[in-house]
């Protein structure tokens, strides 16, 4: 039987590139199919901060962080909270991924030229007990070069495969069907879209110029999640998180629409945990958008006062950077879909980092001078641009003007100046002593015991209302769609499973389409730095497994 290739990979994001690179190393012929134009190769990984979850790394040890496989697995399982029969394979993937993160992950990447920023970040700190959600220690390793730096070796390996005649890159090819001709799923059909010179991330048009049909011994689905499809996000929104937000902004372009998941399901694949999702609560509208409803996430330090729409502080331990899903659950119980950070310029300058490669030109451009200048600046340039132009920012010298600006951004004037002043003054009184009953201030002081946070991520405790630390700043925070935690159920060889639990012949899946492994390796929550790594690990696994199966 004639085949066009040994394997067809659907999706040219990080997982698809990793799978294709492994297939090339095994000498297999690959057709890599992608609906977007070639300038968008790498998908969402290009826009990422490049954060990776590593365990007991040299970077951690240099910062006197004592990490271990046992501690990381404890944190993962406490965070995931697996509790369903269909969590069998996600749990198996979780154990395998922690093994990878504590083992060969760093050396494998280092051997391909990937390097890391020396200061390790501390995301999702939890704030509950030792067996609950969160990272017990800093594990967020920023790739030197951010997302583009992480993508580079995999793009290079795939293009080397093109040069060897092993890889065909078929951009502007949108898959519409998977079918069988000899028992296994071996046929991929779809539409050829008209060429587009749209810049990366921008809408590329959907005019159809023709059709295609490719055949191969195996198919790997790496098409991503549903974050750009707000209708599908709302349709899958879990009851446990309340009513879906009326307003959401997008951390991914509209073409991240989840349609390929439905196509795989129609071909016999089992889709599980579709109600598990990871959306951020610190989203701000991009003042210079690339795609529709383009949002950016603030990666905050712990000092901003987090208020709900009415001006009440969020409950313990829902401090900035501690528990994303817990915060989302609380927000949706308030009857409003937005919250506020209230802070001052001293805090914003030290503690605000904006997620994304384009928001961190120093790290993305691998500029040591740029990093030094950022550390020395009063407010980093990208953050200052949002202060000056962002529609969600209010910057004022006095509290009265700040409240008026906050209420002007709301449908109704919910913030009372006198009440906010009492809240801020009460918080500020707790700063006078090195001990306090305010657990957020306790958390701030605990954070500063970690050298990395004390140097570049956490401001010295001070009064928010201190005029010397001003001006005052309020930031309206929106729900930002991002990652799909559920997906196509896969075994440890990345083989897609059917409703009966048997492999769907010829079909593999990796990346977000597979819930980053197993159909939901994160369970209910993520430890952060685990999405890119999940794409790499599951993509590598799928590529190697498919290479073994094809003749």
UniProtKB/TrEMBL annotation:
Signal peptide: none
Pfam families on file: FAD_binding_2 (PF00890)
Cross-referenced InterPro entries: FAD-dep_OxRdtase_2_FAD-bd, FAD/NAD-bd_sf, KsdD_DH, Succ_DH/fumarate_Rdtase_cat_sf
Taxonomic lineage from the root: Bacteria, Bacillati, Actinomycetota, Actinomycetes, Kitasatosporales
Protein name: FAD-binding dehydrogenase
Domain FAD-dependent oxidoreductase 2 FAD-binding per the UniProt entry, residue ranges: 6-532
Gene Ontology terms for molecular function: steroid dehydrogenase activity, acting on the CH-CH group of donors
SUPFAM superfamilies the UniProt entry points to: FAD/NAD(P)-binding domain
Organism this protein belongs to: Streptomyces alboniger
Keywords associated with the record: Flavoprotein, Oxidoreductase
